[in-house]
Known about the structure:
The chain is built from six helices and 43 strands. By secondary structure, it is mainly β. The protein has four domains: about 30-155, Immunoglobulin-like (Sandwich), CATH 2.60.40; about 155-270, Immunoglobulins (Immunoglobulin-like), CATH 2.60.40.10; about 275-430, Immunoglobulin-like, CATH 2.60.40; about 440-590, no CATH class. The strands form nine sheets. Strands 2, 3, 5, 6, 7, 10 and 11 form a seven-stranded mixed sheet that branches. A seven-stranded antiparallel sheet has the order 35-42-41-40-39-43-38. A six-stranded antiparallel sheet has the order 23-22-27-32-29-30, with no helix packed on it.
Amino acid sequence: MFKRKFSISVVIAFILILNPLTSFALILVHQTHSLSPKGSTSINVVANGARYRFIVGISLGGYSPNPDGGFVYSTDGYKYQQSSITWEYPEADGVFNVEGEESENNYLKSLQWQTPITNKSYQIKVKGKRWPYGPGGGGPYDPNWESTASGQITAPTIYDTALIKDSSKYKAGTEVSVDPSEVLVVEAKAADGSQDIKNSEVTIFWNLKDPSPTNSGSGSLSASSTTTDSTGLAKVDLTCSNTNGDDHIVTAQDKSSEPSSSCDSGKAIVGAQIDLSAIDLYGTVAEGNEENPGAYVHYNIDNDNGNTSGGNPIADKDEDGPVSGENDLKQATITLKPSSLETGKVILKRSNTKVRTWKSSTKGGNNKILVDSNEKTWDLSDSNQRQDFNNVKNNLWVEGYQDNGSSNLTAEYRDAENNLVGSDTIKYTFIGAICGRQPTPSERNDAGSTFPNLIHCEWSITGEATPIYNCIAWSVGETTTWYVDVEAHRMHPYDIVIDNVWGNGDSTMTMAELDAFYDAKGYESTATGPNDADVMYYSGFHGARKKGCNCGAGKWIMFESKCGEWVRIEHVHNQLNGVVYGDPVRYYKHK
Length: 591
C-alpha cells in the first residue's frame, strides 16, 4: 500500500519535471479583467456572487522558453518575477482566491473574486518585480511596480422571472391555471446590465406575493434564496395553495428587503378566478362595496327615444329596442382567470326580474342575456360558446327594469365536473324619480333648455301647469297663492307682495323681510343645508320644498319646485341650480 502511494508520487513528480508548463483548469468566471503593470483602471462589478478574475495584463513573447527560470517574459521588454506577484484585496467583501501560475493568467498569479451581497466601492491592488531583458535593456531599471482596479459593486439586474408549467414559461402579465397544491418550478436570471451573468453563483432572493383579493389558503417557496447555475438561471419550487381561486406571484429580487432590482413572475391561479365588476351612476364600484351598499343604476323610466303612445311617453324599460339615445344602462364586466381556460362553465345569474342584462348599451332583441331567463351559461369547452363569452364578458349592460328595488347579479365558474370553483356577486339598487309622471318629449325638451342640470330618470312631474300658485307658495305648502318679492314684479292682480306685507314697501325685499314671511308661515332660517332644510330659497327668487320621499334610496335629497306657471316637479336638490334660479342661499326648517 505504501509502495503504491510512493509510485504515484514519483510519477506525478516526473510528469511535472517533464511538463513544467502544464495548466490545471481554473474556476470558470463571468468576466476576466486585466491590470496593466503600473496602471490603474476603473471597473464596476456586480454584487451577489458574480465571479471575476483579475490577471496581470502583459503580452507573452520576446524570449523562449517562456516562462523560464521563474520569470515570465513580456513583449514590453520586461521579465516578470513569478514569485513576486502579490494581491491586496478587501477580505471582508466576498470570497477571494489567489490562483496559481496557469497559462490562462499569463503564468502569473491571478485573483478570483466572488462578490458580496452589498453595494459599495472597492479597490484591488497587485504588486510585483520586473527587470528589463534583451539588447538595450528594454528601458530603465525599474523592478517594483503595482497596479490598481477600483470601482463600484452594483446590484445585479434581476429579470425574466417565470413560472414553469408543462415546459411553458409564464412571465409577468400572464396567467396559468394550476391544481390545488401543485408544485411549480420558478426561475429567474441575473444580468450585469448588458449580458447574463454566467459561470457564477449569484444569489437571488424570492418573495411570494398574494395578489388581491386575499387568499383563503396559502402557498410556500422551497427556499428564501437560491443561486444561479453556470447558465445564469436561479430556481426555486413554488407549492401552490390547496384552495381554488387562490393565486400566487413570485418575485425574484437582489436583496431580501428593499431590493434595488426585482422582477415578478406570471400569476399562478389555483383552479380559476372569476370576478364580476361594475360601473354605476357614481363610477367604478369598489371591490369591498359590491354587495354592501352595492351598485346604483337608474330605474329606466325615462323616454330617450321620444316614442309615445296616445301622446304619453313610453318608458325605455318597456321597449326591447334598440332604443335610440339610450343612456341609462351601466356596464358590468366578467373577468375569468386564466383567460385561456377552455374547460368548465361560466354562469351569469340574476336573483329576480328587477334587473336585465344586455349585450349592448342600447338594448335590442338580438342582444338579450338575462331578459327572458334568469340564468345564462357558457360552456367553455364549446368553441362557439367560448367565443360568445369572450365577446360579451367586457360588454355586459345592466338595466333597472322594475320599480325602486334591488337585485343581485352573480357570476360563477364551475369546472368540468360541475364543481363550483368561484363566484362573485354584485347587489344592484335601481333608483328613479317615481313620485310623479315622466315628462312628454316636449316637456323634457323645455326642461332641458331651461334647467340643463336636470338628469333623466331623476325628476318627474308632480303637478300640472297653472298660474294660480308659484314656487314660493308651494315652498310653504300653498296652492292658491302667487307671491312676488316687490311691487314691480307683480304678474297678476291677485299676487301678494312680500315687501309690502312683511316689509316696509320700499320696493326692495331684504333677507329680514323674507325671514319674516317664512316665520309667519311656520319656518325659521336655522337649517344649514339641503340635508336638514325643509325649504331652500334660491338667489333668483325661487323656493323649493323638501319632498321627503324615498326616491334615490338615500342617494338623493329630493325637493319639489313649482316652476312659474309651468308644471311642478320633483328633483334632486342641486339640479335646478343655474342661470334661471341661481343657487340656494337660505335654508329654512319647520319651527
